[in-house]
Amino acid sequence: MTIIRLGAVSPLIDGRQSQRAMMVRRGVQILLNDMRHSVLPELTLASGRRVDLISLSPKGEIWIVEIKTSVEDFRVDQKWPDYRDFSDRLFFATHKDVPLDIFPEDCGLILSDGYGAHLLRDAPEHRLSASSRKALTLSFARTAAQRLLAAEWATGQSFEDAETTEN
Questions:
Q1: Pairing of the two strands 108-112 and 117-121
Q2: b/e string for 44-53 if b means 16 or more Cβ within 10 A?
Q3: Contacts of 28 (CB under 8 A, 6+ apart)
Q4: CA-based angle 149:167:10, to the nearest 5?
Q5: What pLDDT does 28 receive?
Q6: What is the domain count for the chain?
Q7: The domain containing residue 80 runs over which residues?
Q8: Phi and psi, residue 81, nearest 5°
Q9: Per the domain annotation, does 154 fall within a domain?
């Protein structure tokens, strides 16, 4: 079930993301969901940095996807190398109007059109330590549970009830 809106105070829609970034994000979320990943947007890491997308694969791998919507967006960002310490695989995601050769070869690359996305280059694996994986997985789970509860409160509808009416 997709959560459309949680409210103005939600980190999911805090106004910092451009329409183009949201379009890229939507396509990447569709791709990762099709790959059976659990996906969270805008997760704050222990370092205080906030990732655009983080996912947990069926095998338990943690992927971080950094969204870039222009050459300038990529050039001014100095935080993305730190994301390696919080993921097994690091990806960039963009759209057709951004030249793909600006992205480093040692990161994965995803091209999105908002209706889906294509994995153009897989990311090399750099496995997290067991303690880092546990801390990040717990943070992922806590955040997902908090957002689900907030969505239920905002809509006044239990997601369990919604699932039974859809079937």
A1: antiparallel
A2: ebeeeeebbb
A3: 53, 65, 67, 93, 110, 112, 117
A4: 25
A5: 98
A6: 1
A7: 11-128
A8: -60, -25
A9: no
* pLDDT tens-place values along the chain, 167 residues long: 444 444 444 445 545 678 999 999 999 999 999 999 999 999 999 999 999 999 999 999 999 999 999 999 999 988 999 999 999 999 999 999 999 999 999 999 999 999 999 999 999 999 999 999 999 999 999 999 999 999 889 888 876 765 555 55
Which whole-number Å values give the CA distances from 139 to 21, 25, 65, 95, in the listed order? 24, 21, 17, 29
Instruction: Report which of 25, 16, 14 is spatially closest to residue 95, judged by C-alpha positions.
Output: 25
CA-nearest of 46, 68, 42, 36 to 54 is 42
What is the reported pLDDT for 44?
95
Q: Which residues pair with 64 in a beta bridge?
A: 54, 90
Tokens standing for residue 12: 């999911």
Show the 3-state SS of 52-101. EEEEECCCCCEEEEEECCCHHHHHHCCCHHHHHHHCCEEEEEECCCCCHH
CATH number reported for the structural domain that contains residue 108 in this entry? 3.40.1350.10
